[in-house]
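Q: Predict the assembly, please.
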Amino acid sequence: MVEVKRVEIKATKQLREVMAQHFMELGEAAKTKNKKIAWCSSVGPAELAHSLGFLVYYYENHAAILGSNRTASDYIPVANAHGYSPDICSYLTSDVGAYLKGETPLTKAYGIEKVPTPDVLLYNTNQCREVYDWMSFYAREFKVPLLGVNTPRTQRQVREDIVESVAAQLEQMVPELEKIAGRSFDIDRFREILVISRECSQLWEDVLETAAARPSPLTFFDACIHMGPAVVMRGRQEANDYYRILLEELKERVNQGVAAVEGERHRFYWEGMPIWGKLRSMSELFARLKACIAVSTYCSSWVFSGFDPKDPFQSMARAYCSIFIGKDDKGKEDYIAEKVEHFGVDGILYHDAKTCPSNTNNRYGMANRLSERLGVPHLIINGDLNDIRCFSEEQTVTNVEAFVEQIEEAR
Amino acid sequence: MKKYAGIDVGSCTTKAVVIDQEDNMLGSHVRRSGVDYQSAATESLEVALGGEGWDGVPIVSTGYGRHSVNFATEAKTEIACHARGGFHYVQRALTVVDIGGQDNKVIKLDDKGHRLDFKMNRKCAAGTGTFIEEIAARMAIPLDKLDGMARKAEKRVKIGSYCTVFASTEILSLIRAGVSSDELVRGVFESVVDRVMEMIPLADTVLLCGGVVEYFPVVADIFKARISGEVIVPPHPQLTGAYGAALFARELAG
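A: Predicted assembly structure:
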């Protein structure tokens, strides 16, 4: 088979540094208790926690690391044996399994003995109910408060009464968080954090936008790695500094015509979660076929341009209610259709993730509807975010190769 | 005489087909793929060529082991080759249904033979050749008896599971309920057709291929009874992919 050459993204070095800083701070705080630690879901109320001086640890990010380094397969069965079904979220089962075994990849990567013990657990059900079940486990283990926001999903439009309710829930968290933080809430600090977070969103969106160029300077697989700071350090200036460096490099790549996939011939949309344990092999497969996955729902999920310091609680509530995963199928289809057109996509890939129904969108006919509406073919890839027992490499390679052949044939 | 070869290294069997410039089949061979795909491909090709060497013979490999055939000129997916082989016999818009050892493929083609869409079965082997072998072994019935038994069945029993293990236990319940072996076997074949029909709506012309249809022609009869469009079975259903690969080899050679 053809060997794939690629021009590495230089900013990866700074990415490693900024991610290391995030984890080292958490490790230090866990050891010295110099700062309080809040665990937060990835699209949870992180800005509120930051404004009260908490360091924020993202449990989904930890689970994604378990998926990426393929240790999830060792931990999922441990959680299964403790009564957590193999059919539920494999982020949850791999993370809980690792905890039950007393292991974390942070030890090898950053010398952190165990996951940083939380002072409070935060969630928002805007993405799924599983984050609540997941944190309920840790609330029982650590005997710390579990605070969160219950957001309805499958919305035709963002309704004002729901925004009001979410804003009220956010405000109601403040007194409890003040007690845990041991300091008073400062609304001006909250406004500042929202501005920093919004800027991070904007920079990240600009990074993703560079993939509209032909050839694209980055792929979905690159974006899955480089989105780290937008997830775990939004609200921190360091994330914004990093994205300025990355953005400059990608713009330079666009100017010089440097392709993320050498000889790019096909451009795809990725709908759904990454298959974390297969990022490298999938990246190589698509590169070999000269196919660039230029745009995805997943990597675009950390864009919160609606944050407004003038109206912090309401705007935060609105932004967190407006995310893709909260929309109904019609809203999701309109969103994908706009991106397919803007990024000049030849085909849509749907990842049917066995244990993640919330991030799996092909199960209610969307794939057929969108292909008919856009005249763009699709392929469904069966797999999972972390449980690679649900993934057949052979079948996937054949399906992807055949999909590319089909697109070639149609030209 | 110019020769062109196609080799389909499938999960269960390896098939080789050699054709001439006019697409006539000059030779073919089928054997178990085993664990050494390269050897299986080599042996199959040697036999299909009647013992002659393959210097200068354009070869296209396909099937799960397509990338393991290091002497192939090019590798193409089994989707492409079944589509190409199937279209050769029909030459109009059609749906190719391949029921193989490990998976099923349904491929929709336009009137030029270009693929419009395709589907492969989900992860479970239910509805494939492996499923039939598993059930036959469980019921201690030789494979070559199955087709005749299914044809003798007087009524249809439903086997609904799309998991091979669940289907096996469903069969145990039917045995306890006194269902005859003939009806059980018929039910197994009916369930293979059910699994295919759950993948994509089948209408108009359907071409059936793959080892299951080759060895158990009753499956084609069940399809004919179930769908309104024309059902076509090519001369050697199991060789359709390898034949399609050989056609590609000829086209590649120009």
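The interface with chain A takes residues 64, 67, 76-80, 103, 114-118, 120, 122-123 of chain B (CB under 8 Å). The mean pLDDT of chain B is 93.
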